Amino acid sequence: MSAPAGSTTSAGRVVVGEAVRRRTFAVISHPDAGKSTLTEALALHARVIGQAGAVHGKAGRRSTVSDWMDMEKARGISITSAALQFAYRDAVVNLLDTPGHADFSEDTYRVLTAVDAAVMLIDAAKGLEAQTMKLFAVCKHRGIPVITVVNKWDRPGKAALELMDEVAERTGLTPTPLTWPVGLAGDFRGVLDRRDGSYRHFTRTAGGATVAPEEVFPAEAAAAREGDAWVQATEESELLTETGAEHDQELFLAGATTPVLFASAVSNFGVGQLLDVLVDLAPAPTARPDDQGSPHPLDAPFSAFVFKVQAGMDTGHRDRLAYIRVCSGVFERGMVVTNASTGRPFATKYAQQVFGRERETIETAYPGDVVGLVNAAALGVGDTLYADQPVTYPPVTTFAPEHFAIARAADTSKYKQFRKGIDTLAGEGVVQVLVSDRRGDGAPVFAVVGPMQFEVASHRMEHEFGARISLEPLPYRLARITDAASAGELSSARGAEVMRRPDGELLALFTDKWSLGVLVQNKPHLTLIPMVAAD
Ligand code: G4P
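A: This is the predicted complex of the input protein with guanosine-5',3'-tetraphosphate.
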């Protein structure tokens, strides 16, 4: 790790020194690729310091730490995000969880606004799957460097070179494998370390429950030991070298290449190597650009932004937790900070890491760290918090919704509760709330990335705000940003409708790609801008 530099005060040097040690990342993958298994394996290799939020698991297999919502319990999944902090070598690693259920929601995307790097986890047999690609699109949009891990190499799967072609073709990133498997998928003996030509042989431990011992052999010994499997690995590695698939730190950080590792998370193979790569190659937090685009120095006084708000965790207390990512300075529990969007003070007396029901108080945090602020009723997603030196970070991107439904109060006498609930859910980013001028009744339209967001919203409207709702699904599946000039023409188009977001932005909604395609062809002058993660 490079030496901290640049700050003129000793307090500033401490902050920069701590920031340089941080690695804040998320795993992007399709359900079942092995994200939970990898998370557990990483924790096994490192010294876990704390968890903010819930660690998810699956019904009957691993216990779900969180039981914040009945729905989570019933389904055995976590709808909420978590941050796991651990120490590895000299580094402090923050692993932010991206909820991975098939119905994943905007929360999954939002986590990616708070990380500095991503690990793209691929199932060796399945290659790049739908959700991996969606999440990758967000990383690409944000310029987040991506490390690729091919998982489940202990099971039959695709050929390694075929997977590299797939990564290159579908992501546009040049894969630069750091290791190369010795033995085909299903016969994982170890890896050729392409950086020094050595062989790292893995030893299986019972059920992968402990750190898998690695033995390192020089090339000659590997050839004698593994025979044809070693020859094939070296030949393929040479082929990669000829095609220029060598790691280049600048190209990696610029989002042009992706280092690749081969692993078997369930057997703990390749997990230590991933941690080393994260520490050695993944970027530390850097000065985050403010809403004017100027980088806000790491050693400026404390600043952070809210990337997630979680409510209803404790129905008895109407609890609300806001997760912030520290961007500059030191967070010290108890400090009174300013919410840039309202100008109001916010006391951080209750700053916690949360372990399901058990909560541990956080005293200090540095750039890259995640803090859960309790009783955060006044905070919304995207809000900036600062101490002493005012700053505002750009709003958190809203992602392309794919499902839409009109929300109506089931009991019209509860209209006040209904409005309050809708405003709260919109502020928290549980759903996006649109208004259609065409529909005269002014009923809000919920727009979501995953249908489960509808369930969360309905559940909370009924149980938290006492306003049961009915949802009438709308047939739209695609959204594009448009302008007032185009909106007029779009309103008469078949299979399309224009709605307004609270920030005034106009969204054109379409039932399918076909109706959008026809319109683009017939009326190329219309403004139809894709949103992040729109396909
Ligand atoms: P997810 O969080 O990405 O959804 O995936 P998860 O870790 O839950 O893993 C999905 C399934 O894949 C699990 O099997 C898990 O054991 C298995 N798995 C994960 N990593 C590997 C690997 O490296 N090799 C092999 N062979 N399997 C792996 P399951 O049948 O759903 O559960 P279990 O009963 O096996 O635990």
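The longest helix spans residues 228-242. The domain at 403-530 is CATH 3.30.70.3280 (Alpha-Beta Plaits).
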